[in-house]
């Protein structure tokens, strides 16, 4: 069983559990280290710090993290920041910046949808997001609720997913900028799920080279729901570019059968684990 899970989400972005429920689950799964890496927010960590010390938080090491949305060559690339100082100016400003972008993106997606004849989803999606960082999953959920589509996956497949009108990656800051924020916060920058981006091998190696040039130190070699063989491919990239290896489930919801907290393929032996840098 894996003891580390360095990629997980709470309800503060598009996960389903509160930070406390997530930690309970991690303790139940006998994890020793859990990185909470919500999309463009560190609210879960702020909640953890401001409320009563959670009774289980001393049984597990909680690693402060974030998953920033960035763009590289017009593609949306997710960069994890692990072991960051959540209270530093760089993170506060970065989160504010990303929040503004997410709100503007909602407006622009809603506008594109109204041009297709749909009612304005802005307020409904915001209401569903509540205090959480607004994301496409909330937009999808609202579209289902209003009968615009029959399911969340249909909302993504037809309107919000890769290559569709709701897929606007040009809004995000450059990858380089995001890595800079993470480094300013004392963290380690990690390319999240590098195999999931639809690109050729050549392009993926260019992404790796550019990431290395920005000072990025690690890539996610193992992710939840990863097909066999990918970890070895990612391990080869680590060796070529001198990256450390990260591993995490990308857990969102206990009802998703295909991604369980703490579950991901074995890290190839030749890899240097990213936690050596913490
Ligand atoms: P955002 O960060 O707002 O662009 O939303 C991206 C999130 O949407 C991802 O992290 C996933 O949680 C979710 N997502 C992306 N594609 C799909 C899909 N095809 N079906 C369901 N959820 C998806
Ligand atoms: Mn997500
Ligand atoms: Mn991601
Ligand atoms: Mn994620």
Textual characterization of the structure:
Helices cover 38% and strands 15% of the residues. The chain is of the alpha/beta class. The chain has a domain at 4-95 and 185-277: Alpha-Beta Barrel (TIM Barrel), CATH 3.20.20. Strands 1-2-3-4-5-6-7 form a 7-stranded mixed β-sheet. It is globular. The model has no long low-confidence stretch (mean pLDDT 96). The structure holds adenosine monophosphate and manganese (II) ion (3 copies).
Question: In short, what is this structure?
Answer:
The chain is built from 9 helices and 7 strands. With 278 residues, the protein is α/β, with parallel strands linked by helices.
Give the arrangement of secondary structure elements.
Blueprint: E1 4-5, H1 19-28, E2 33-36, H2 43-50, E3 61-72, E4 75-82, H3 89-115, H4 122-129, H5 136-145, H6 152-160, H7 175-184, E5 188-191, H8 201-213, E6 218-223, H9 230-241, E7 244-248
Helix pairs in contact: 4-5, 5-6
The chain binds adenosine monophosphate and manganese (II) ion (3 copies).
Tag the structure with descriptive keywords.
278 residues; alpha/beta; TIM Barrel; 9 helices; 7 strands; 38% helix; binds adenosine monophosphate; binds manganese (II) ion
Shape: globular
- CA-to-CA gap between the ends? 21 Å
CATH class of the domain at 4-95 and 185-277: Alpha Beta
SSE arrangement, N to C: EHEHEEHHHHHEHEHE
Number of strands: 7
Largest sheet: 7 strands, mixed
Radius of gyration: 18 Å
Q: DSSP strand (E) fraction?
A: 5-15%
What molecules are bound to this protein?
A: adenosine monophosphate, manganese (II) ion
Main-sheet strand order equals: 1-2-3-4-5-6-7
At CATH level 2, the architecture of the domain at 4-95 and 185-277 is Alpha-Beta Barrel
Low-confidence stretches: none
**What is the residue-averaged pLDDT?**
96
**What class do helices, strands and sheet pairing give?**
alpha/beta
CATH superfamily of the domain at 4-95 and 185-277: Metal-dependent hydrolases
What's the helical proportion of residues? 25-40%
Q: Assign the CATH topology of the domain at 4-95 and 185-277.
A: TIM Barrel
Q: If helices are DSSP runs of H or I spanning 4 or more residues, what is the number of helices?
A: 9
């Amino acid at each position: 069983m894996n003891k580390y899970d360095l990629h997980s989400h709470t309800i503060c972005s598009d996960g389903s559990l509160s930070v406390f429920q997530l930690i309970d689950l991690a303790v139940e799964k006998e994890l020793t280290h859990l990185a909470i890496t919500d999309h463009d927010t560190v609210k879960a960590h702020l909640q953890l710090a401001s409320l009563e010390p959670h009774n289980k938080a001393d049984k597990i090491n909680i690693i402060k993290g974030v998953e920033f949305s960035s763009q590289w060559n017009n593609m949306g690339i997710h960069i994890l920041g692990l072991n960051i100082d959540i209270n530093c100016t760089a993170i506060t400003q970065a989160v504010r910046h990303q929040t503004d972008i997410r709100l503007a993106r909602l407006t622009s997606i809603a506008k594109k949808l109204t041009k297709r004849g749909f009612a304005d989803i802005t307020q409904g999606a915001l209401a569903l997001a509540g205090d959480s960082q607004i994301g496409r999953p909330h937009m999808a959920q609202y579209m289902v609720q209003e009968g615009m589509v029959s399911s969340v996956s249909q909302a993504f497949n037809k309107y919000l997913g890769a290559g569709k009108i709701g897929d606007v990656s040009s809004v995000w800051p450059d990858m380089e900028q995001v890595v800079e924020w993470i480094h300013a916060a004392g963290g380690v920058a990690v390319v999240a799920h590098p195999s999931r981006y639809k690109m050729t091998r050549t392009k993926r190696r260019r992404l790796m080279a550019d990431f290395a040039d920005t000072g990025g130190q690690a890539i996610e070699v193992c992710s939840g729901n990863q097909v066999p063989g990918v970890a070895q491919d990612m391990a080869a990239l680590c060796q070529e570019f001198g990256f450390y290896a990260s591993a995490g489930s990308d857990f969102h919801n206990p009802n998703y059968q295909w991604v369980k907290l703490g579950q991901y393929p074995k890290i190839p032996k030749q890899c240097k684990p990213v936690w050596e840098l913490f």
